[in-house]
Amino acid sequence: MGRDSSVPRGTSGWLPDERQLSESHTVLWTVVILSSLFDVVTTMVGIARGLGEGNAVARAFIETDGTPGIGLLKFSALLVVVVSWAWFDDCRATAVLTGFALVSLVVVALNAMTLAGL
Questions:
Q1: Taking the model in full, what pTM does it have?
Q2: CB of 115 within 8 A of CB of 50?
Q3: At residue 63, does pLDDT exceed 70?
Protein backbone atom coordinates (compact mmCIF):
# COMPACT_ATOMS: atom_id res chain seq x y z
CA MET A 1 0.00 0.00 0.00
CA GLY A 2 1.55 3.26 -1.08
CA ARG A 3 1.79 6.41 0.93
CA ASP A 4 -0.23 9.48 -0.10
CA SER A 5 2.35 12.14 -0.99
CA SER A 6 0.01 14.88 0.30
CA VAL A 7 0.22 13.51 3.84
CA PRO A 8 3.41 14.57 5.65
CA ARG A 9 5.60 11.81 7.03
CA GLY A 10 4.48 10.73 10.49
CA THR A 11 0.97 12.19 10.34
CA SER A 12 -1.02 9.37 8.76
CA GLY A 13 -1.19 7.36 11.97
CA TRP A 14 0.65 6.44 15.10
CA LEU A 15 3.82 5.59 13.16
CA PRO A 16 4.96 6.79 9.74
CA ASP A 17 3.89 4.69 6.78
CA GLU A 18 7.39 3.85 5.63
CA ARG A 19 11.05 4.34 6.43
CA GLN A 20 13.85 3.73 3.96
CA LEU A 21 16.78 1.82 5.44
CA SER A 22 19.90 3.75 4.48
CA GLU A 23 23.33 2.15 4.36
CA SER A 24 24.41 3.95 7.53
CA HIS A 25 21.27 2.83 9.35
CA THR A 26 21.90 -0.74 8.19
CA VAL A 27 25.37 -0.62 9.73
CA LEU A 28 24.06 0.96 12.93
CA TRP A 29 21.25 -1.60 13.24
CA THR A 30 23.81 -4.38 12.81
CA VAL A 31 25.91 -2.91 15.64
CA VAL A 32 22.82 -2.40 17.83
CA ILE A 33 21.60 -5.98 17.37
CA LEU A 34 24.99 -7.66 17.75
CA SER A 35 26.02 -5.55 20.75
CA SER A 36 22.65 -6.23 22.39
CA LEU A 37 23.14 -9.94 21.85
CA PHE A 38 26.66 -9.81 23.30
CA ASP A 39 25.39 -7.74 26.22
CA VAL A 40 22.83 -10.41 27.10
CA VAL A 41 25.35 -13.24 26.68
CA THR A 42 28.11 -11.59 28.72
CA THR A 43 25.62 -10.66 31.45
CA MET A 44 24.33 -14.23 31.65
CA VAL A 45 27.88 -15.60 31.79
CA GLY A 46 28.79 -13.13 34.53
CA ILE A 47 25.75 -14.04 36.59
CA ALA A 48 26.47 -17.75 36.12
CA ARG A 49 30.00 -17.12 37.44
CA GLY A 50 28.65 -15.42 40.54
CA LEU A 51 28.94 -11.78 39.57
CA GLY A 52 26.15 -9.34 40.39
CA GLU A 53 24.35 -7.06 37.97
CA GLY A 54 25.51 -3.45 38.28
CA ASN A 55 22.48 -1.84 36.62
CA ALA A 56 19.64 -1.42 39.13
CA VAL A 57 16.93 -1.73 36.46
CA ALA A 58 18.49 -4.88 35.01
CA ARG A 59 18.94 -6.27 38.51
CA ALA A 60 15.21 -5.75 39.20
CA PHE A 61 14.29 -7.58 35.98
CA ILE A 62 16.63 -10.44 36.91
CA GLU A 63 15.29 -10.64 40.46
CA THR A 64 11.72 -10.71 39.15
CA ASP A 65 12.08 -12.95 36.09
CA GLY A 66 15.45 -14.67 36.53
CA THR A 67 17.72 -15.02 33.52
CA PRO A 68 14.86 -14.44 31.02
CA GLY A 69 14.52 -11.00 32.64
CA ILE A 70 17.72 -9.94 30.90
CA GLY A 71 16.19 -10.78 27.54
CA LEU A 72 12.92 -9.07 28.47
CA LEU A 73 14.75 -5.89 29.43
CA LYS A 74 16.85 -5.88 26.25
CA PHE A 75 13.76 -6.61 24.12
CA SER A 76 11.94 -3.70 25.77
CA ALA A 77 14.88 -1.38 25.13
CA LEU A 78 15.12 -2.47 21.51
CA LEU A 79 11.38 -1.92 21.07
CA VAL A 80 11.85 1.70 22.19
CA VAL A 81 14.73 2.05 19.71
CA VAL A 82 12.63 0.61 16.86
CA VAL A 83 9.70 2.94 17.56
CA SER A 84 12.02 5.94 17.92
CA TRP A 85 13.85 5.08 14.71
CA ALA A 86 10.57 4.73 12.83
CA TRP A 87 9.09 7.91 14.28
CA PHE A 88 11.93 10.44 14.12
CA ASP A 89 13.40 12.14 11.07
CA ASP A 90 16.66 10.74 9.65
CA CYS A 91 18.95 12.93 11.74
CA ARG A 92 17.28 12.07 15.06
CA ALA A 93 16.87 8.42 14.07
CA THR A 94 20.60 8.25 13.39
CA ALA A 95 21.26 9.83 16.80
CA VAL A 96 19.05 7.24 18.52
CA LEU A 97 20.80 4.34 16.79
CA THR A 98 24.26 5.78 17.39
CA GLY A 99 23.57 6.47 21.06
CA PHE A 100 22.17 3.02 21.73
CA ALA A 101 25.00 1.36 19.80
CA LEU A 102 27.67 3.28 21.71
CA VAL A 103 26.15 2.56 25.12
CA SER A 104 25.75 -1.11 24.25
CA LEU A 105 29.34 -1.37 23.00
CA VAL A 106 30.66 0.22 26.20
CA VAL A 107 28.60 -2.18 28.32
CA VAL A 108 29.84 -5.19 26.33
CA ALA A 109 33.45 -3.99 26.65
CA LEU A 110 33.06 -3.56 30.43
CA ASN A 111 31.39 -6.96 30.74
CA ALA A 112 34.15 -8.61 28.70
CA MET A 113 36.91 -6.95 30.77
CA THR A 114 35.19 -8.06 33.97
CA LEU A 115 34.87 -11.62 32.70
CA ALA A 116 38.47 -11.64 31.51
CA GLY A 117 39.60 -10.67 34.99
CA LEU A 118 38.00 -13.75 36.61
A1: 0.81
A2: no
A3: yes
